[in-house]
Amino acid sequence: MQNSPQKVATATMVGTAIEYFDNYIYAMAVVLVFNQQFFSSDDPMTGQLAALSTLALTFIARPLGAAIFGHFGDRIGRKKTFMMSLLLMGVSTVIIGLLPTYESIGIWATIGLCLCRIGQGIGLGGEWGGAALVAIENAPQGKRGWYGIFPQLGAPIGLLAANGVFLLIVALFGEQALLEWAWRIPFLSSAVLIAIGIYVRLKLTETPVFLNAMETRQPHKIPMLSVLTTYFKPFFLGMMISVAGYVLFYIMIAFSQIYAKSAPVLSEAGYAMGLGISAKTFTTLLMCSAFSLAITIALSGVYIDKIGRRIWLIVATWGVVLLGVTLPLFLENGTTQSLFWFLMIGMGLIGMGYGPLASFLPELFPTSARYSGASLAYNCAGILGASVATLITLKLNANYGLKAVGLYLAVNGLISLLALYWVKETKDMDLVNEKLL
Known about the structure:
Elements: H1 5-37, H2 44-75, H3 78-98, H4 102-105, H5 107-137, H6 144-152, H7 154-173, H8 175-182, H9 184-202, H10 208-216, H11 223-229, H12 232-261, H13 279-307, H14 309-331, H15 336-354, H16 357-363, H17 370-385, H18 389-400, H19 402-422, E1 429-430, E2 435-436
Antiparallel strand pairs: 1-2
């Protein structure tokens, strides 16, 4: 039975919204809370860097999740696999909300947080690929780009929900309560969201493209191995194409948040370390920028089916390079207004680049290796582009200033551009027969 467009849109969008909600609340808690709750240090900067380093654990674990869930997704089907990835991710998030603090159990609190973060990463590694494939493998020919934006729209929804929850907590209980115990509420509330996500996904049937492939050809014994050998070129190019978006995203939600709320003092090298803007103000600005992210994701879905994925991504990535070059103009001696426009433009560029990925990356691979290939490319890019991006940008700013941060972003944009010039357009690919029309 064919899945209705409404079911596909809801199931893929709800799941990725939960994925991004879980990821955002963790990133926000790292910046605001975890350096005090799960790490012991007399030096606030050391505690902050230690807490931020746990962000990298997820990106290291995500390729493992991509390999595990990709293996089963390519062999037994998309539906069951991307349900299990959502469950693992959600359970790991809820457990974080239940963990005792460092003050209660010492180093075991830190270890528990790290293990949960790894669990989140493994779940995240399978979630995006499954949602993307369910979306585009249910889409009619010529509409895959539009169908592919529905899982991507989970990003701004998750961003809005996560920031909204933190603002609501501060409004109801105050900032001190947030630091002491109320930070647990968003993590525990994820249990409700997971139940909704599982319920919605249970109503889906397997994708027709996958069912057709299982009738006509044998699946790979080890899909990941096929990706790394037979399909290494599309895997490598897909990974490089995704790098710039990851770097920009973590500059937006992590580096800029730390820089904005830090005191306007100079580093030992003489560079500005912050703007002294309140956390509440930054959160409000970030929520506004989520609308920019949603609008450009939606626009990409309209145009990539007309002009192609590749040319759209080239334009978006040149925009990332330009933003890197002009980054100091927004943030050096920045104001609330300049920070607002930096976030709006940055999130808009992220949406332009992120929107096409759900159709473009899967289209680079045949059905028998599509889950593994798209997931591995997307998640391995996270190791290169996101796992250490915040740590690198903080160090660059302290030692060389915002020009170095902007240069770091621009160089990653050029890397993605180089990969885009080597890849072929895929909008006319027939997924069933696996050939260009």
